[in-house]
């Protein structure tokens, strides 16, 4: 006797799981269009409900009325945004205050941070970076390599330990993503950080697909540097500013190449030569993009009172259940599940492979299930435990079944 | 018989000048707090009236409802913002379309542009930059110098021609501001560009205090590169994104170090190695900060139909009249006018020196006249011809007289 898993039974299980979801009160913290199953928060997070009022206040009161006075006066205090927001983001990364700044784009932060890290190992001429890294990480590693005269070697994350065994003593910096942007595979951050340190190298982690989704412990794992964006699981808005983390132990010696005036020890003294601020402030670059930062500040309130272990457990429940749904409903339809099935090897997205991916993703979106594609044949569905549900997972798999 | 210029006669002349102002219809394009004379638009421009609605639309409709689809779909087309906005800014710089991008901070654009320029003169090892340049320009010139192995020499703008005569054949890049941030002095951009070219060097102009205030002609003056911010006379909002101009003739050969993925020739092919886009697109860096950019896009509409020659003439009328008011009302009170009196040597601000500047600026602000200070002894009053009036000028001088 076999027990076929039916769509109906999955819908019923989803309802039970969603009823028991300890984060279900967080869903009302987002304004999602009715009828849409939004599984593209790994690319652009949904709109947090607190953002519209915050932006109205930012424009009318802080800018329009407070004018220049809002940089330092009243409750606006724009000047402090990079560090103030940095601490808010840092709390979601397992970073004690005073080690994270927010600003600029991830690309800019990668350049600044890779260079600062490499300069801390001046006698080592090798930079190891992920062969499957997101393109901007790869491009900027090459650029840093050219400017500093480093060899840049691309290594699959799964082979990093071997590479360190062979060439660790020449390796200045190891730069990898916490979660692969294409496959959704999660790498062993604490283990690989320890391996890099054992070889005397420093690590720079890209947390774009991890911040706000995983239970990160940057301080406890002894991470040196990390960067990431805030527009995916942190739902900070389109192109929201990036963040950079630098462990306190490096603050005194680190030298970022983007020596913008706001990172100066005494910026308004307007001195002619650069002297970086004593703490994480030296990782500040130019004048902060206030409006985008204030949107992020409001958005990040959606994490208030959320325990990261609970968040991670819910994320795994959602992605695990989606894999179950795909197994049950998509068999024999040309799909392959690319993301690892072991929970500890998953981020918060599930990637499927299908020869018609490029057509299926927009077709599903027309039916209200929004994900994204990566050419030539990947479908990516990201789950944000603050607003996605197990019902979303069934609907997505059902829709893909209907289309194939 | 002497004719003393009285405050009353200045008020009367101001009224006549304002009644004849060809740009007086532009004042309603800004939302200024009642009772405030805002003369700090050279630091943060006032709120353009079109911004609040644009931001509401950006947040609710484009982000909240359009979600990921707004990057390429509908009328949002966020992806195109850097070039689309670049062309809008370029039109105010005398730049034909396709040579300007908007994004990131001025500091980041300085680094990217100085490096790209220096790489076009690989056999020259000297970078000449303004001894009185804004600090971030000085710091980033030093950083570029360190990374590329260039000597960075600080030269007062007034001595640039002599420096070029002495060492022009070793000079790769000449990096100066169009207008001095502290004194408001305007330098001879076309003449100094020609002098640099005669020596075989390239120019990088910082237009922070010029864009939206002067009648710039980057194409006609044969400028190589320029950068600037959009939050001063362009009123794009606090920390609004910067711009970078690169003359078309350099597009094929220029190599920016910040090789972010959005500047790739085919960004969504996600290739492992960088190949810059064919045109100005290669000056793009990371993911654009959409909300800040959409505020700027709405703001720049305040220039619609404004002829730059008229704008410049009005700006000179305002600053010239303010100098007259200061001469008439501030004599014997310890003030010195720092900004040159010759119109062609002025930007759009007037800087005064007074031993009590640090106290006078906030005291005047309390009486509704907002400017800013630069320690130890400078008062800066910036005039934006789109919203400032000759009445503002009299009021500012009168207020300073009352306080001294």
From TrEMBL, chains A, B:
Coiled coil: none
Cofactor(s) the record lists: pyridoxal 5'-phosphate
SUPFAM superfamilies, per database record: PLP-dependent transferases
Reaction(s) the record says it catalyses: L-kynurenine + H2O = anthranilate + L-alanine + H(+); 3-hydroxy-L-kynurenine + H2O = 3-hydroxyanthranilate + L-alanine + H(+)
GO biological process, one term: quinolinate biosynthetic process
NCBIfam families: kynureninase
Protein name as annotated: Kynureninase
Organism encoding this protein: Actinospica acidithermotolerans
